[in-house]
Design a protein that fits this description.
- The protein has about 90 residues and is mostly helical.
- It has one domain (about 5-85): Monooxygenase (Up-down Bundle).
- The chain contains four helices and no strands.
- α1 runs parallel beside α4 (about 60-85), α2 (about 20-30) packs parallel to α4 and α3 (about 40-60) runs antiparallel to α4 (about 60-85).
- The protein is elongated.
- About 10% of the residues are buried.
Length: about 90
């Protein structure tokens, strides 16, 4: 396989794994509830994604960078929603 084909798999994986967080974010914003979302898991995941961003930057990998930056933003919104909605109770 040449590098173009490999990049395709990287971008496809990036789209799928990033899009996986959209249903959770949409549900959280719609219901204004996030008690089912584990705070510890969310924080650990955000830390992991941040390291993926650093790694992607160091190896100059666009699929890793793009996917993880978007994933970080989505998960930060979920975290903010969790904190905000739990204080309204």
């Amino acid at each position: 396989m040449n590098s173009v084909n490999i990049e395709f798999f990287g971008y496809f994986a990036a789209i799928l794994t990033t899009a996986a967080f959209l249903p959770q974010l949409i549900k959280t914003l719609k219901t204004k509830k996030a008690e089912d979302v584990s705070l510890l898991t969310l924080i650990m995941f955000i830390c992991g994604v941040s390291f993926w961003i650093l790694y992607g930057f160091k190896i100059s990998s666009s699929p890793i960078l793009i996917a993880n930056i978007i994933t970080l933003i989505l998960n930060l919104f979920i975290l903010i929603s969790k904190v905000f909605y739990s204080k309204k109770i």
